[in-house]
Predict the 3D structure of the following.
Amino acid sequence: MTSDQAVKQGQRKVFRLPGAIVAWWAWVLFAAANLIDLAIQGRSRTALEIVVALVAVTGVVYACALRPRVVTDSGGVTVMNPLRDHRVPWGSVTSVDLAESVRVHCLPDAGSAREKVIHSWALYARRKSKLRSEFIKQGSSRRLPRSNISSYGRPASDAEAIEKQSPAQLMAVQLDQLARDARDARDGGADAGPLVVTWAWRPIVAIVAPAIALALVIAVLR
């Protein structure tokens, strides 16, 4: 299915790197093993402090590793970072590219002449590459090969270029194409709208509440 079809049918698509999910579950297993051990053997003040500290760190790992992602649907793109969400209608997205992370360029308000750049915490680039450098220098004037099924049957040079791209580069290309397809749709294109920024209260609570609990435990028991 092409990106244009995905947008028209309102399909929701999630973009994230697998490494963050692996890191989350590795921490969950580590924390769970330690909590079980402390429940069996620990009955001291130090054990309680370690338990609360593990819960506090779990909140941080959840906010920084598991939660961040980029979500697209028929209406636009949502960049979910650790503590804030940025929602941009497709009509306001001017381009998507890759620097240290995937960046969504948009017009924050109707009639605005100055672009705003939203950096995705979830989609980051590990190291510089030739394709990345060319993409940054030339911006939207040059597009990287699309990374969907239509790439099969193309010249070998395009296929090899796609294989050399990092996962973040591939996702940047797909996101940029989704924005282009939405703007160029046959029914007049996607509507523009204001950028909406909201706080993500769940990860904030997951970080702040255990941190306060840890501070109280240390202050009361020592």
